[in-house]
Design brief:
The complex is a heterodimer. By secondary structure, chain A is of the alpha+beta class. Chain A has three domains: 48 residues, Uridine Diphospho-n-acetylenolpyruvylglucosamine Reductase, domain 2; 119 residues, Uridine Diphospho-n-acetylenolpyruvylglucosamine Reductase, domain 3 (2-Layer Sandwich); 105 residues, CO dehydrogenase flavoprotein, C-terminal domain (Enolase-like, domain 1, 2-Layer Sandwich). Helix content of chain A is 28%, strand content 18%. In chain A, the strands form three sheets. In chain A, strands 4-5-8-6-7 form a five-stranded antiparallel sheet. A four-stranded antiparallel sheet of chain A has the order 9-10-11-12. In chain A, helix 2 links the parallel strand 2 and strand 3. The C terminus of chain A is likely disordered. Chain B is α+β, with helices and mostly antiparallel strands. Chain B is built from 17 helices and 27 strands. In chain B, the strands form six sheets. A seven-stranded mixed sheet of chain B has the order 3-5-1-12-9-10-11, with helices on both faces. In chain B, a hairpin with a 2-residue loop joins strand 22 and strand 23. The N terminus of chain B is likely disordered. The chains are: A alpha+beta, B alpha+beta. The interface between A and B is large, with 40 and 43 residues.
Chain lengths: 352, 752
């Protein structure tokens, strides 16, 4: 077999010291990393297993009204935490719409942020991929790319970020708490993921050794709890990545939008915060006309990167529907088919 | 092996008389749910090594270099098998002695003719070492341009399609029929390449002992595999012992022994130790068969009453560059709808792919989705209800041949399924139904049909002096329930309670049970079992009726019944005696009888033999997003005698879910330049998940068929996919007004 060092640090500083060495990779849930290693897409020389660091698996209410989610909290545990789901229903819905029950039981919050694109050319080591091998070229550009990016792509890379979880998180101004050699720092999730530009291999703000220790939601994130939804269009009902998804959160008062959050998934190399659309929404009447204008604004800069022009129109429609759903109000109970357009169909099983 | 014993640990079921027709649960179910069922890769003979394939990442060219030294230097690697050191074979793997002998890639040279072709085998002490050794080979290639897609090469008319049927057939004058028609339609439908994706990958565990071979590998056709292996290695077939008690799905991909399985045998030969070779999921996209893409054009003409005046079905498909298998899609139009003029034709291209093979109703499924879509278009063009249109064009005799059907309860299938579904209230026009949540709702239907095939099989029956029985046939259970259904036929054939019968199957040292394919296994091996039972009972009856000491003396064979372990006089059931008494008196510890199952040539000539069904589907479509959800499926099927309604219903469910998968999910996405499949994994090669499987109802329509075989069995394994895929497509049209013309149906096709 291909040997690698396996280190199980007892403390966060030990972990950071170990992972700062070149060729290191953190292992948490392993739901993405192990596949990448088996496929030869990545070959770390040193695995730093942080999965048993005790202080990283807590969900804490902060004094300022915010929430701090430890990086090792499992997706399923977070989604099924009643207090969490009540305050951040769109996040819980997004979590439960992702992957499969088995994967959600293993996958972690920190790992979700760091999951790699599902671009098939990234996984196919016989193909050229600038993300996998800088300077190699991008075989997706002229390839099978109907599900690739329509926003923020470059000729170097047209891949998308696959996370569902990150979409409502970025809408709600989540902050990534990072510990590194120089101590602890906070980076907004919006700034955490990078667009490809000329350097698609630089996917995020992490430096060697940096460890995501927590994700924070600010106090105001919970103020949307009555009107927050995640909507995900995909090609089968479970265990499929989004073709396009959207998280929408509103505060509506007397028919006027007092606060609005909107983000898109499956459209770019990062979870896409639609700030221009939010500006359209703010102060406007909460109705379909406004939502359509917001959708236009959200996709104003979109362009197809291949056989995927349909995703732009689809994204507009999803934005409108997500906003309508948010306006209609968060459902009393999490839908049986979370985030599905068909979530209301009776008889659908909860954990599908 | 304790298999037989375990299989008899089934609690007795309350039943009376016949085992056939009883809804027994699977006799192997306990083994499977507890994990005790031993699949091929679960075997670990002492001293076993692990073999891992290195496969080509190019579609066409040659292997210029392999870093064999690096692989061999890796700790744990024992040997690297390449064309240079691969043990000699007695037969050329590129030879094709008959149409069912498919060419294999067995490292015969350095040529690459499709992606994922085996280019070397690394054998090591551990799976991990062999895996890394294969990676270290770092092949270099001389690459030639790949021929990809149905427009990727020059087309030609193949000599034969499917199992060798003519590529072009016609009756009547299609052009004249179209010309005389009041209404005409023409439409082209595309279906993609699909891969079998059985849960259990092809796996083999091999041990050589001199010139004899002991093999654990999943096989849908043990005797064929045995013969093929024996031929390749120049040894007697009886020296090849294959055990295949369970398959984790086959779907046609385990019908023939595949190249990688033979490479496992070669690897064991090379290193002189037992070897295990298991394909990785992505390695199943190439050397073990697939369903080729098709592009089908249908033209239909109808008179003023909606009767077909002409039906023309053309299918373009693909095979590999080096072997012949042509998906006989257009042949679906031979058997279903009456028309004075029918023409079917095929052409094909040769692509740099593995050779396509039999997969889940090969030809029938692809042809059905196009034909049923076109019939729906034709009905709409005539302003008719699709069911009424199908009844108007109901075939009283097989349309292409004019032969009478051996039996055909399709009208009853239509009636029962339509009634259960509630079809009568369907509006004729599309896009008129919405549910309370605003989803577009559509109802569609399709006719299902599949030929009632039989192959050749043998069985051996034994009655023992202790009153028990034994039935042996090398049948294959790939999940369909062979262990149970055949034991039921055996019990009735032997006149015993099922728990008194030791039923043995799944091994090549048993009588040849033929292939578990073509939906013909139950009919074929079932008839062999039935006949073997009859043969041994006849011997037993001879012993009794010829012996003055027996109460059956003088009754003659015709006058004796076998039931519950006893023979009775037919004319006086109070007179009888047990098998044990008869055998004990005769001083015999056991007697045996042999039986065969095969199609009857005379009735083959006379009758068209098909199972039939009708499938109704309801879908909901999000009007803005084009996302589709199948919410209801109702199928009614008539397939002759039903051996076990529980298992048969499960087969229909499975087939109908295949149909949903065909219409909405399955597609191998092939890079148009490299020819590599981009979604060679179960995350991205989509099949329905549980949440996609709707409410499914399968109605068993009674049908007596005196002609197919003595038991009246047709087949049920594949018919469910036919009809269903088209029904889903037609329901999508009815919901949206958009006619799906390529499959799987995509969101972008419905966005409008």
């Amino acid at each position: 077999m291909r040997d690698f060092d396996y280190i199980r640090p007892a403390t966060i500083p030990d972990a950071i010291a170990a992972a700062a060495e070149p060729g290191s990779a953190y292992l948490a849930g392993g739901t993405n990393l192990l596949d990448l290693m088996k496929g030869g897409i990545t070959s770390p020389e040193r695995i730093v297993d942080i999965s048993r660091l005790p202080e990283l698996n807590r969900i804490e209410r902060l004094d300022d009204g915010g929430l701090r989610i430890g990086a090792l909290v499992r997706n399923a545990d977070l989604a099924y935490d009643p207090a969490f789901a009540k305050s951040y229903p769109a996040v819980a819905e997004a979590l439960l719409s992702g992957a499969s029950a088995q994967l959600r039981n293993a996958a972690t919050v920190g790992g979700n942020l760091l999951q790699r694109t599902r671009c098939s050319y990234f996984y196919d080591t016989a193909s050229a991929c600038n993300r996998r091998e800088p300077g190699a070229g991008c075989d997706a550009l002229e390839g099978e790319n109907r599900l690739h990016a329509v926003l923020g792509w470059s000729d170097a890379c047209i891949a998308t970020h696959p996370s569902d979880f990150c979409v409502p998180l970025v809408a709600l101004d989540a902050v990534v708490e990072i510990e590194g050699k120089k101590g602890r720092r906070h980076v907004t999730l919006e700034e955490f993921h990078r667009l490809p530009g000329e350097t698609p291999q630089r996917e995020n703000a992490l430096e060697p050794g940096d460890l995501i220790v927590a994700v924070r939601l600010p106090a105001e994130a919970a103020s949307f709890s009555a009107n927050a939804r995640y909507l995900k269009v995909r090609e089968r009902t479970s265990y499929a990545f989004a073709v396009v998804s959207a998280a929408a959160a509103l505060v509506v008062d007397g028919g006027k939008i007092r606060a609005a959050r909107l983000a898109l998934g499956g459209v770019a190399a990062k979870p896409w915060r639609a700030r221009t659309a939010e500006a359209v929404l703010l102060g406007a009447n909460a109705n379909e006309v406004t939502f359509a204008s917001a959708a236009e604004a959200a996709l104003a800069d979109a362009s197809p990167s291949g056989d995927n022009a349909f995703k732009i129109e689809l994204a507009r429609r999803i934005v409108v529907r997500a906003l309508m759903s948010a306006q209609a109000g968060t459902p009393e109970r999490l839908p049986a088919l979370p985030a599905s357009p068909f979530s209301n169909i009776p008889g659908a099983r909860h954990d599908a | 092996m304790t298999l037989e014993l375990s299989l008899n640990q089934q609690p007795a079921h309350a039943r009376q008389g016949s085992s056939i027709g009883q809804p027994l649960t699977r006799r192997d179910g306990f083994l499977k749910v507890t994990g005790a069922a031993r699949y091929a890769a679960d075997n670990h003979p002492p001293g076993m090594l692990y073999a891992v394939l290195a496969v080509s990442s190019i579609a066409r060219g040659r292997v210029a270099a392999l870093d064999i030294e690096a692989a061999k230097a890796h700790q744990g690697v024992v040997e690297v098998m390449t064309p240079k050191n691969r043990p000699a074979l007695a037969a050329d793997p590129d030879a094709k002695d008959h149409p069912f002998m498919f060419r294999l890639d067995l490292l015969q040279n350095d040529q690459v003719r499709y992606p994922n072709q085996s280019i070397a085998v690394v054998i090591a002490e551990t799976l991990e070492a062999a895996t890394e050794g294969a990676a270290l080979l770092s092949p270099r290639y001389e690459v030639l341009p790949a021929r990809v897609g149905l427009d990727g090469a020059e087309s030609f008319v193949p000599r034969g399609v499917g199992v060798g049927g003519p590529a072009v057939q016609h009756k009547g004058d299609v052009e004249a029929g179209l010309k005389s028609a009041k209404t005409r339609i023409e439409a082209t439908y595309e279906t993609p390449a699909q891969y079998h994706n059985a849960m259990e990958p092809h796996a083999i565990v091999v041990a050589w002992d001199g010139d004899t071979l002991s093999i654990d590998t999943p096989s849908q056709g043990l005797a064929m595999a045995q013969g093929r292996i024996a031929g390749l290695f120049g040894i007697a077939p009886e020296n090849v012992h294959i055990r295949s008690p369970f398959l984790g799905g086959g779907f046609g991909s385990k019908g023939m022994i595949s190249g990688p399985q033979v490479l496992g045998i070669l690897a064991a030969r090379l290193v002189g130790r037992p070897v295990k070779l298991v394909l990785r999921r992505e390695q199943m996209y190439g050397p073990v068969g697939h369903r080729a893409p098709t592009r089908q054009t249908l033209r239909m003409g109808m008179d003023g009453e909606g009767r077909l005046t002409a039906l023309d079905h053309h299918a373009k498909t693909a095979s590999s560059t080096f072997d012949d298998f042509f998906e006989p899609a257009a042949d679906a139009s031979h058997t279903l709808y009456a028309s004075p003029a029918i023409a079917t034709s095929h052409d094909a291209v040769r692509l740099d792919t593995g050779t396509p093979l039999f997969m889940r109703a090969p030809g029938e499924a692809t042809g059905s989705i196009a034909l049923e879509s076109a019939i729906d278009e034709a009905a709409h063009a005539c302003g008719m209800d699709p069911l009424e249109f199908r009844l108007r064009n109901y075939a009283e005799v097989e349309p292409m041949t004019g032969k009478p059907f051996s039996s055909k309860a399709l009208r009853e299938c239509y009636r029962q399924a339509a009634e259960t579904f509630g079809w009568a209230s369907r509006p004729l026009q599309p896009r008129l139904m919405r549910d309370a949540d605003g989803f577009l709702t559509g109802w569609g239907m399709g006719t299902a049909t599949f030929p009632a095939l039989m192959f050749q099989a043998e069985a051996r029956a034994v009655l023992r002096a202790d009153g028990s029985g034994l039935m042996e046939t090398g049948a294959q259970d790939m999940g369909q329930g062979a262990w149970t259904a055949f034991a039921q036929i055996a019990a009735d054939g032997l006149g015993l309670d099922i728990d008194q019968v030791d039923f043995r199957a799944g091994s090549s040292d048993l009588p040849n049970a033929g292939i578990a394919g073509g939906s013909g296994h139950t009919a074929t091996a079932g008839m062999a079992i039935h006949n073997a039972g009859a043969a041994v009972i006849a011997r037993l009856a001879d012993l009794a009726t010829g012996n003055e000491a027996s109460p059956l003396f003088g009754a003659g064979n015709e006058g004796v019944l076998a039931r519950g372990g006893r023979l009775y006089r037919r004319d006086d059931e109070s007179r009888g005696e047990s098998y044990a008494e008869i055998l004990t008196r005769a001083g015999l510890s056991e007697i045996e009888g042999h039986g065969k199952g095969a199609p009857d040539p005379a009735s083959q000539e006379t009758y068209a033999k098909h199972a039939h069904g009708a499938v109704f589907a309801e879908v909901k479509v999000d009007p803005d997003f084009g996302q589709i959800r199948v919410t209801r499926l109702v199928g009614a099927f008539a397939a002759g005698r039903i051996i076990n309604p529980r298992l048969v219903r499960s087969q229909y469910y499975g087939g109908m879910i295949w149909g949903v998968s065909f219409a909405l999910n399955e597609e191998a996405i092939t890079d148009r330049r490299s020819g590599r499949i981009q979604n060679a994994n179960l995350a991205e090669y989509h099949v329905p998940v549980n949440a996609d499987v709707p409410s499914v109802e399968a109605l068993l329509v009674h049908e007596d068929d005196p002609h197919v075989n003595a038991l009246g069995i047709k087949g049920v394994g594949e018919i469910g996919i036919t009809g269903t895929a088209g029904a889903v497509a037609n329901a999508v049209w009815h919901a949206t007004g958009v006619r799906p013309r390529r499959f799987p149906i995509r969101i972008e096709d419905l966005l409008g």
